[in-house]
């Protein structure tokens, strides 16, 4: 990515799409089974619009407030956008998140499950849900501890009537990501969950080889964040 400053976002998007198709082929995976989420956090509408114009429709944001500031207008212009929340969600913002996002990757505690269930009932909107796993069991890090994932997923289903589609993780900084991705894949398989949200700009090839269905790329598409 040494020439990241010279390339435009649509050019980087095309390069990523080409590489992703190659990775899919190498790993005997259908390219359509791997959703490319363009993470547009910190970038304004002027940076996002060229990527929309290039035909991309799947985007990720990590803050509800920031997304609320820029996506309603972009959605009016590009109605088939699919917006993913990939960052921490406070229970008191659950209703706003349910209104804004099509997919939420950061469900990680009972209070949030309960707030999302209520917001979904009240609004009639049903964003798809991923449970975030604290895959390295790091203190202070968001996500359900590995040992509690099965119980939490079951609780989401039975107590809150939520349908959980998959698991999401952010491996510990500095660790090789591969073993963490492999563990997330094993957990998902044991719980009969079809989707795996894992892999960022630096490690998505490993994630694809270990079964990622959703990769979240910011820098690789938009360049360095300011
Ligand atoms: C910012 C972010 C990404 C994208 O990171 P890049 O390294 O820029 O690709 C992916 N996932 C989460 C949860 C993020 O916060």
What fold name stands as the CATH topology? Answer: TIM Barrel
- CATH C-level label: Alpha Beta
Shape: globular
Helix/strand/pairing class, anyone? Answer: alpha/beta
Rounded Rg: 17 Å
Instruction: Report the span from N to C terminus.
Output: 16 Å
CATH architecture: Alpha-Beta Barrel
Count the helices. How many?
9
Which stretches are low in confidence, meaning pLDDT under 50 for 5 or more residues running?
none
Which sequence of SSEs, written as H and E, runs from N to C? HEHEHEHEHEEHEHEHEH
- Determine the fraction of residues in helical runs and give it as a percent range: 40-55%
- Rounded mean pLDDT score: 96
Domain count = 1
Q: Strand share of the residues?
A: 15-25%
Largest sheet: 9 strands, parallel
Q: What is the H level of CATH, i.e. the homologous superfamily? A: Alanine racemase
User: How many strands in all?
Assistant: 9
* Distinct small-molecule ligands in the complex: pyridoxal-5'-phosphate
Q: What is the assembly state of the chains in this entry? A: single chain
Architecture overview:
- Helix 4 (94-100) packs across helix 5 (110-123).
- The chain is of the alpha/beta class and 226 residues long.
- It has a single domain (4-222), classed as Alanine racemase (TIM Barrel, Alpha-Beta Barrel), CATH 3.20.20.
- Strand 7 (164-169), helix 7 (177-190) and strand 8 (195-197) form a beta-alpha-beta unit.
- The longest helix is centred in the first third of the chain and has 18 residues, at 9-26.
- The chain contains nine helices and nine strands.
- The structure holds pyridoxal-5'-phosphate.
- Pyridoxal-5'-phosphate (PLP) is lined by residues 39, 41, 62, 86-87, 170, 200-202, 216-220.
């Amino acid at each position: 990515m040494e020439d990241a400053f010279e390339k435009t976002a649509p050019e980087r998007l095309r390069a990523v799409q080409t590489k992703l198709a190659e990775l899919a082929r190498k790993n005997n995976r259908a390219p359509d089974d791997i959703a490319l989420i363009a993470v547009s956090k910190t970038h304004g509408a002027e940076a996002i619009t060229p990527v929309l114009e290039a035909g991309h429709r799947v985007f990720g944001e990590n803050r509800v407030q920031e997304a609320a500031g820029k996506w309603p207008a972009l959605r009016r212009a590009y109605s088939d956008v699919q917006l993913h929340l990939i960052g921490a969600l406070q229970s008191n913002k659950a209703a706003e998140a349910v209104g804004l996002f099509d997919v939420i990757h950061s469900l990680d505690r009972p209070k949030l499950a309960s707030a999302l269930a209520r917001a979904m009932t009240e609004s009639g909107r049903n964003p798809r849900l991923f449970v975030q796993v604290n895959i390295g069991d790091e203190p202070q890090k968001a996500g359900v501890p590995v040992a509690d994932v099965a119980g939490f997923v079951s609780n989401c289903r039975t107590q809150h009537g939520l349908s959980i589609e998959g698991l999401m993780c952010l491996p510990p900084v500095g660790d090789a990501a591969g073993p963490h991705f492999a563990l997330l894949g094993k957990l998902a398989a044991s719980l009969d969950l079809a989707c795996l949200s894992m892999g960022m700009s630096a490690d998505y090839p490993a994630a694809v080889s270990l079964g990622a269905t959703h990769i979240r790329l910011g820098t690789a598409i938009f360049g360095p964040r300011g």
